[in-house]
Amino acid sequence: MSSKQPKYEYVSTAKLPTRMGDFKIHGFVEASGQEHVALSYGEWKEDDVVPIRIHSECLTGDSLFSTRCDCGFQLEKAMQNIVDNGHGVLLYLRQEGRGIGLLNKIRAYNLQDSGMDTVEANEHLGFDADLRSYDICKLMLDTLNVKHVELMTNNPKKLAALKALGIDVVARKPIDHGITKDNKNYLKTKTEKLGHAFDPHVFK
Ligand SMILES: Nc1nc2c(ncn2[C@@H]2O[C@H](COP(=O)(O)OP(=O)(O)OP(=O)(O)O)[C@@H](O)[C@H]2O)c(=O)[nH]1
Hints:
It contains seven helices and seven strands, in the order ββββααβαααβαβα.
């Protein structure tokens, strides 16, 4: 790749009516060919604080209704929060399985079925616990004229990544939604080993 070639590019925008409300969808691509999307709802000015969610792809949770994780619940809740708020942005990053990909996530699930936790399973397969990058968020937010954000997350790495990219993170909004008997242990591991900010009472 030549050093002049941009690492990320904005591609196009279209209307995206959903069950929650009428969003717009904006397409972005990395030089590698990896595609990502942002959804926007409503209007704002450059000085406004915009509620946003950065969501990593989870085919099983987001599209197949899995209760092994909280992903699908959080996605739905974040989109509803944005609509209720009147404006906001969802950055949907196609980094499935914390960056290891769908089939490796299924391998990791197989190991978790035999007793490993989510971090041990990644490491057993030869991956770091979390391989995600949030660098493309800067182009996405600049394209949508978002400079100040309130971030819906329990993950401190997302906050740090946005700050490092020069985004003004005014506040974090917890998104403790979709805790089930099937994902309690997974969320407990994320809290203990990956630094997620879940309040311990949710595991009782
Ligand atoms: N490798 C691996 N990935 C998983 C597992 N369960 C869920 N995931 C992935 O974890 C990611 C979760 O993404 P997010 O919900 O955006 O992020 P998060 O780190 O949980 O942070 P917040 O939800 O913002 O608090 C998705 O890419 C899922 O596919 C698992 O057991 N192993």
